[in-house]
Amino acid sequence: MSRTISDSTVRRLSHYLRALEDLEAGGADSVSSDQLASRGGTTAAQVRKDFSHFGSFGKRGHGYQVCALASTLRTLLGLDSVWRVALVGAGRIGAALYRYPAFKARGYECTAILDNDPEKIGQRWGDRVIQSVTELEQVIPDQAIDLVIIAVPVSAAQEIAGRAVQAGVRGVLNFAPTRLRVPSSVPVTNVNLVIELEALSFALTREGGEA
Amino acid sequence: MSRTISDSTVRRLSHYLRALEDLEAGGADSVSSDQLASRGGTTAAQVRKDFSHFGSFGKRGHGYQVCALASTLRTLLGLDSVWRVALVGAGRIGAALYRYPAFKARGYECTAILDNDPEKIGQRWGDRVIQSVTELEQVIPDQAIDLVIIAVPVSAAQEIAGRAVQAGVRGVLNFAPTRLRVPSSVPVTNVNLVIELEALSFALTREGGEA
DNA sequence: TTGTGTGAATCCCTTCACAGCG
DNA sequence: CGCTGTGAAGGGATTCACACAA
Lengths: 211, 211
Known about the structure:
Helix content of chain A: 40-55%
Order of helices and strands of chain A: HEHHEHEHHEEEEHEHEEH
Largest sheet of chain A: 6 strands, parallel
Radius of gyration of chain A: 20 Å
Distance between the termini of chain A: 45 Å
Shape of chain A: globular
Oligomer: homodimer
Largest interface: A-B, 60 and 60 residues
């Protein structure tokens, strides 16, 4: 039970869970670290090491019980509980996220949508009404919001993050291409679409130059 | 001039570039590794080490010329050239990406949109018409597409990736939550929204359990 | 004096190799 | 046997510390 788990380990756990759910759907009963590795794009040793941080879940000579391991991973990843989410920013990215079916399936429930555009406030998305972002401080405690998704322009992102944390939010998923300053006790995950594309063009540029 | 540059280094270069562009807009002339570090969320030593992989761009005692360094980074990241992009999947995520202003600003030009939904084919997004995904093999060579953005469901993603690579695409930005199998010469960048959220709920679950 | 560029030291993650259990 | 769990080894990436140039 080590204290610190690296980010890459957590990401791999997510991959393993997805692979296990596929196997479950396919009716598989048990699975070896080798099989999980090939599905998850890693090595058998890595799979076993990843699990070893949390306990021992396999049977020597027989691998892992698909169903039990999936359940264990869901617990580790915090997918047993329902996470209450507020979406700030009802633009195109916000819209795409709000309807993303995988979110609800994994236990993330978006119970509030906020924006600062008077044209959008009052609009209806499904059965939910877009509220003014000025209500952030009421919404977060009232609805017991755990996570906030920031899908606003860079110029507004830091202010929203600060206010959300102040109001009691426990984690932030940030789509604005900027680094947010929040207390270290509040985890922030950044999704920066520009950086992902730049990583690609960097790779292509180099490969061309070195070939 | 080392051969292999790590992914994290590339990501940091993107951050530095963004910081430099801010400084440029603010009229700053030169900048120290210290200043860049605090804006980029890293350390001064890291900044200097990152640059040292590519050459030496600073003046001892005076830091870096903002404008010249920004230009150098743009070249390194391949932002001098225009990258031609095809978007496959005209759902909500595709729509959000297509209108994402930062893409065009960075030299990524989306010249084709493809989908398999008969209702969508023929629709107009701005001045562009959605084409059938069956035309993928014509579009990629005809329009000299460099990159393809995959924004389709998991069930279709691998097939699209394979066909796109076969047709001559050089890089893939994948939004489907699955690991694509492509030749190792074709760089793939994955954006997996579910994993990002799961990383958050993992962090929150642990912190609660250990506090 | 200031702040870069860089070998050396350190830390962390991955891989190896095998003991041990079913 | 087969395959897990894990200490030890190996490799990369970050950090340190300082010589050196402006």
